[in-house]
Write a structure and sequence with these properties.
Layout (H helix, E strand, L loop, with lengths): L1 H29 L1 E3 L2 E5 L2 E4 L2 E3 L3 E6 L6 E6 L11 H4 L5 E3 L2 E6 L2 E8 L7 E6 L2 H28 L5
Helix pairs in contact: 1-3
Length: 162
């Protein structure tokens, strides 16, 4: 019984890892991913244009620079400056550590960063609910991984019945 429990735990663990890897590959393959910023004016760096054809998500990740970051619509790009970026930038729907996720509607957007050096943020755009679906897959894979570890540990320490 001990050996079977250990085998089941290892199988569940590997299935969880496989699901996490596949979800990660799908997320990176389905996203428009970049870390390129252009110097727009002195101390102002602008990302490539992010086009969203339907509702979607735009994410940015990194510890960046000592500056101010904001996601603005293309129509407001030329009007944004250091004094009004806080009021003109969209508010992220989720912010966790260095990750910010924005729920956006159809349109074109830019990340604008005011700072002393080139930013080190990576940004990505996802169409529709794809980000949510793939995130659920990755979390499910992680849960299976943890379950596999728990089952395998149980199998290791399980005593044989006499």
């Amino acid at each position: 019984m001990r050996k079977k429990t250990l085998e089941v735990g290892v199988v569940v663990l590997f299935v969880g890892v496989a699901i996490m890897i596949l979800a990660g590959v799908a997320i990176s393959g389905a996203a428009v991913l970049s870390s390129h910023y252009s110097l727009h004016s002195r101390g102002e760096y602008v990302s490539d244009e992010l086009s969203v054809s339907s509702t979607g998500r735009i994410a940015v990740f990194g510890n960046g620079t000592t500056g101010t970051l904001g996601l603005v619509s293309a129509a407001e790009l030329n009007a944004v400056n250091t004094s009004n970026i806080a009021s003109m930038a969209l508010t992220p729907s989720t912010a966790l550590g260095g990750l910010q996720i924005y729920s956006v509607s159809t349109g074109n957007y830019y990340f604008v960063i005011f700072g002393d050096s080139a930013p080190e943020y990576v940004y990505a755009s996802f169409s529709g609910n794809l980000f949510d679906e793939l995130a659920v897959s990755a979390i499910s894979g992680f849960a299976l991984f943890l379950s596999g570890v728990a089952i395998a540990v149980t199998g290791i320490f399980q005593h044989e019945k006499r």
